[in-house]
Design goal:
This protein has 451 residues and is an alpha+beta fold. The chain is built from 20 helices and ten strands.
């Protein structure tokens, strides 16, 4: 198990390193040496090494690798790096040399994410005399995800149910009643499983911003994005579950603030903003005192209490800490991102996902934890799932994954999708394009079993 995990990690990191470093760099050589040592372990014990991707699972020497939480980031990234270039399989034979591996990885890392890249990679392997490595072209059966229709229907149902649950929970909190924390934990577990299986689609669901009130929709989005970041950072499942709880209830303190302030269409007065600034403390207090919430760990409570405290210690509420907790630092990033990309009554125009990421990067080390920002940006990509974009063809599309854009008409109906080479001219807000991305996601999640 550990041997396979190391191989996947080193293969993925080598490909990504090749994207940024030259062949002669020490960093690239170090990654290649780790990969070479890992491959030789298979040669010594099994005599060969073949990696195959089928139905979005990785098979190593014909055995399906059972994914673990600790390797989810590398696992998903490797699948997308290979399938995105039209490759479904790679075989390393015993006559391969470390230089052959180095040349091969560099070719992969520098090729474009496009199904048309396969021919170019194949040509370069032959031209550079690389021996002992064979690649396999992606067929139609690898283009789709097994059971994707069922998974996506379940993801949408889970997303909507979580909003309805939170609505009832916040009403119970307002009235001082107990809430069903067991159901909240089940919602979180389902989100973890769904993000693990189809990260890009589930992240894309956070473009759904018109179900229920802003606070409800936003809280569920923060929960989902927090879970995804937790997975990206390699947190264990128990910690990710508690992080999800903190994300889901991070704004629960707003039940104690008058609706006329929460929903005010104009900028808040200084006095009103002081009221808003109380919600993290009020939320933490509610979670501690409410019936049914006694088993919420201190880490989750701190996430709620500190989610508006900046990385440099500024922000609110003013408490005597040097830095906010990890949960709070994660929520601080995703909370800001979702708020910036959501139309709100007092926000003239929401940010595009691209521009929201640029802002977050600009405040790295000051407002936001640099490690969390790096993980979040790498996870989301230049154009995050659900981004509305204009292509160089003049068409409007929705980014579904790093290699797939759904081309849509003005009614939000899918015309086609492209995995070929395309160039994004610019990102648009849904309002600028006159398109609601959630229409596309509902369509993808309610279509036939085969994607």
């Amino acid at each position: 198990m550990k041997k396979v995990e190391n191989f996947i990690i080193y293969l993925t990191s080598s490909i990504r390193t090749a994207s940024y470093f030259e062949k002669g760099s020490k960093t690239f050589d170090t990654h290649i040496q780790h990969l070479w040592n890992s491959i030789n372990q298979f040669f010594k014990e099994q005599g060969s090494l073949k990696i195959k991707i089928s139905s979005y699972y990785i098979f190593v020497n014909e055995n399906r690798f059972n994914i673990s939480i600790g390797i989810i980031g590398a696992y998903r990234m490797l699948i997308n790096e290979l399938l995105g270039r039209g490759i479904s399989g790679v075989t390393f034979n015993q006559d391969v040399s470390v230089n052959d591996i180095k040349e091969f990885i560099f070719i992969i890392g520098r090729s474009r994410l496009s199904s048309k890249s396969y021919e170019e990679i194949e040509r370069l392997i032959e031209k550079r005399g690389i021996k002992g490595i064979e690649i396999e072209r992606k067929g139609d059966e690898e283009i789709t995800t097994e059971g994707a229709g069922s998974l996506r229907r379940a993801a949408i149902a889970g997303f909507l149910n979580s909003i309805f649950y939170l609505k009832d929970a916040m009403e119970n909190v307002r009235l001082g009643r107990s809430i069903n924390v067991t159901r909240a934990r089940k919602i979180i577990r389902n989100f973890i499983d769904m993000v693990t299986q189809d990260e890009f689609f589930v992240i894309g669901l956070t473009t759904i911003k018109n179900i229920g009130s802003y606070t409800l929709n936003h809280s569920v989005n923060v929960c989902v994005l927090s879970i995804a970041v937790g997975l990206k950072l390699g947190l264990n499942r128990r910690d990710i579950a508690e992080l999800g709880i903190a994300g889901l209830f991070h704004d629960i303190g707003k039940v104690d603030i008058p609706d006329e302030i929460i929903e005010k269409p104009e900028p808040l007065t200084e006095e009103e903003f002081e009221q808003i600034k109380k919600h993290p403390y009020l939320g933490a207090e509610r979670v501690i005192l409410l019936k049914g919430m006694k088993n919420i760990p201190a880490f989750a409570v701190r996430g709620i209490l500190e989610h508006h405290i900046d990385y440099n210690g500024k922000g609110y509420p003013e408490i005597n800490i040097d830095k906010p907790s990890l949960f709070a630092r994660i929520i601080r990033v995703v909370d800001t991102y979702d708020a910036m990309t959501t139309p709100r009554v007092y926000q003239k125009k929401p940010y595009t996902p691209e521009n929201a990421l640029k802002y977050i990067i600009s405040k790295k080390g000051e407002v936001f934890d640099p490690i969390v920002v790096d993980a979040f940006v790498e996870m989301m990509g230049v154009y995050p799932p659900g981004s509305v974009v204009e292509l160089d063809t003049g068409e409007i599309g929705i980014v579904i994954s790093p290699t797939t854009v759904v081309i849509i008409d003005k009614h939000g109906k899918e015309i086609s999708r492209t995995e070929d080479i395309y160039r994004i001219v610019r990102a648009l807000t849904p309002e600028e394009a006159g398109i609601d991305p959630s229409i596309v996601y509902f369509a993808l999640g309610t279509g036939p079993e085969e994607d």
